[in-house]
Design a protein that fits this description.
The chain is α/β, with parallel strands linked by helices. The chain is 48% helix and 15% strand.
């Protein structure tokens, strides 16, 4: 049974009716094409209305949809000759972050991506998409190889955040992320980052310092998950929808605040309904950004990357004057 979110149920019911009507027509040799066409038109209208008015919390649910394409799914669709490289040369090979050489059309790149699983066994192997320190150290090792080989870097992000467990703390997760932040600013090659699903906190930012940062239409990018925010501010996980609203984490909000540079459109109804079209849109966006960045030299790329992140959160104008004392 496919996973269906609450707000998707009216759409799913109409799609079931179409399947039933087609099966009836085939079994009884009856022409049902007009009825099917009417239902399909109703499906499009329902999808358009539903997805034009989603709340931030519903966008978060879409970003986490169990059938949504993960970065590895996109890599299989947009890249050829993917040669995965393993290990951080210090501790272990963290499967929550993968990377290696690849070709996207005629462009050779270094692909870095977070990884999630489709079932319990896969999720345990990749730690439910939350990387340990060795994952970030592996990613940085591959980025430095790309820098030496003068290859652009493409980073695909879908993670709730870095792993917060005791083992990660013992191996210095904060230091690993901090070193990545510092050293990604020194890279002399173009870096294109795309948040494809969840973009959670430092876990996302640890491989997210790019010249261009994009987000897919139904993805989110935030300093903390809505549940985490709700637990801190309201001490109640049930307040997650309210936290999602306050965090301004949707693609529309991120564009308005200039946190991201562009939004990659998804098929009507979300990427999980048409992974091939979603991948084609992602590929086109990445190639366009790589073509634009290819015109910049190493010094320009480093300066632009630095200035891009320094500009985040800047408030224009003088601070408001304090009220006069009576």
């Amino acid at each position: 049974m496919p996973a269906v979110l609450d707000f998707e149920k009216p759409i799913n019911e109409l799609e079931d009716k179409v399947r039933e009507l087609r099966a009836y027509g085939a079994a009884n040799q009856v022409d049902v094409s007009k009825d099917v066409q009417a239902l399909e038109q109703q499906i499009v209208e329902t999808k358009t209305k539903t997805f034009a008015n989603l709340s931030p919390w519903q966008r978060v649910q879409l970003a986490r949809h169990p059938e949504r394409p993960y970065p590895k799914d996109y890599i299989e669709r947009i890249a050829t000759d993917f040669l995965e490289l393993h290990g951080d040369r210090r501790y272990a090979d963290d499967q929550a972050i993968i990377g290696g050489f690849a070709t996207i059309e005629d462009r050779r790149v270094m692909l870095i991506a977070t990884r999630k699983g489709r079932n319990l066994k896969e999720n345990v192997a990749v730690n439910f998409g939350s990387a340990h320190p060795e994952g970030y150290r592996k990613a940085l090792r591959l980025m430095k190889i790309a820098d030496k080989a003068k290859l652009p870097i493409v980073s695909l992000i879908d993670t709730p955040g870095a792993y917060p467990g005791v083992g990660a703390e013992e191996r210095h997760i904060a230091e690993a992320i901090a070193v990545n932040l510092r050293d990604m600013f020194t890279l002399r090659v173009p870096v294109v980052v795309v948040v494809t699903g969840e973009g959670g906190s430092g876990g996302a930012l640890g491989i997210g310092v790019g010249n261009r940062v994009l987000v897919m239409e139904n993805a989110y990018y935030s300093v903390i998950t809505p549940e985490g925010c709700a637990a801190i501010l309201w001490r109640d996980g049930a307040a997650a929808p309210m936290a999602a609203e306050a965090l301004k984490l949707t693609s529309r909000d991120l564009m308005q605040m200039k946190i991201v540079d562009g939004v990659v459109p998804e098929p009507l109804g979300g990427a999980h309904r048409d992974a091939d079209t979603a991948a084609a849109n992602l590929k086109a966006a990445v190639l366009a950004e790589l073509a634009a960045l290819a015109k910049k030299g190493p010094a320009q790329l480093r300066r632009q990357r630095y200035e891009r992140f320094r500009a985040l959160g800047v408030i224009k104008g003088p601070p408001a004057a304090a009220p006069a004392k009576k």
